[in-house]
């Protein structure tokens, strides 16, 4: 069964079958930090949420097929999806699939993870980190930056939700066919997540993506649409500020300057002036 229908609304199951087929459920367990006996990094939580989602959708589809009336089927459907705006359901499913593909590429590239949670917790407490200023950061081609809850990047409009971190990957050209640069995917986490399909889907799809070209600057980044409406401008600007700090921390100082593989923290023109001096 590829779709559920209740009250005139169609809920497609197919995208989450694709999640499993495309590697969303195959994120390997590594030497990642644990908190309260459970995985504390986004890739692990996303894997577990994907499994719960698949099982919950399978269960719901069978319950709806066995329903004795349309009213009973509607009640089951709204019980599972009632926490979501159904007009945004397809968009959230597509966004969750995009996260799944990003996690799969991250895994295939070696699952490199930089835990900067202690650093950003100190920043949130008003401390100034002792990290040298630099015009640009030369970084790995694919990695995850773990901010952690202590970074205090709370997401408004959601109960107990925060920005967990960002997947960063180098692209030879932008998705629009432009030049090289880095694609960022900011991912959120909702701690108060119930087990309904709607809640599980919401937890997997609070994301915002953007691309920083080699000729551009991190501070000029604009989130690509559609992005999650809960990651509003103030949150996004705070994330950019934390990213600049984290990138300076994980930069590869031993690698030579490469204009195509640098993330500019100041304008490229100013960077050239700094380098000459």
Radius of gyration: 20 Å
Order of helices and strands: EEHEEHHHEHEEEEHEHEH
Give the neighbour order of strands across the main sheet. 5-7-8-9-10
Mean pLDDT across all residues, rounded? 76
Count of DSSP strands: 11
* Structural class based on helices, strands and sheet pairing: alpha+beta
How does the major sheet shape up? 5 strands, mixed
Quaternary structure classification: single chain
> What low-confidence regions span 5 or more consecutive residues with pLDDT below 50?
1-34, 268-277
What proportion strand?
15-25%
Shape: elongated
> So how many helices?
8
| Through-space gap between termini | 65 Å
What is the helix content? 25-40%
Structure, described:
With 277 residues, the chain is of the alpha+beta class. The protein has a domain at 113-275. It has helices spanning 14-21, 42-65, 70-81, 89-108, 117-124, 197-204, 233-250, 268-276; strands at residues 3-6, 9-12, 34-35, 38-39, 113-115, 136-138, 142-146, 161-171, 181-190, 207-213, 262-264. It is elongated and about 70 Å long. It starts with a strand and ends with a helix.
Any descriptors?
single chain, 277 residues, alpha+beta, two-stranded antiparallel ribbon, 11 strands, disordered N terminus, disordered C terminus
Summarize the structure.
This protein is of the alpha+beta class. It is built from 8 helices and 11 strands.
Layout of helices and strands, plus pairs?
Elements: E1 3-6, E2 9-12, H1 14-21, E3 34-35, E4 38-39, H2 42-65, H3 70-81, H4 89-108, E5 113-115, H5 117-124, E6 136-138, E7 142-146, E8 161-171, E9 181-190, H6 197-204, E10 207-213, H7 233-250, E11 262-264, H8 268-276
Parallel strand pairs: 5-7
Antiparallel strand pairs: 1-2, 3-4, 6-11, 7-8, 8-9, 9-10
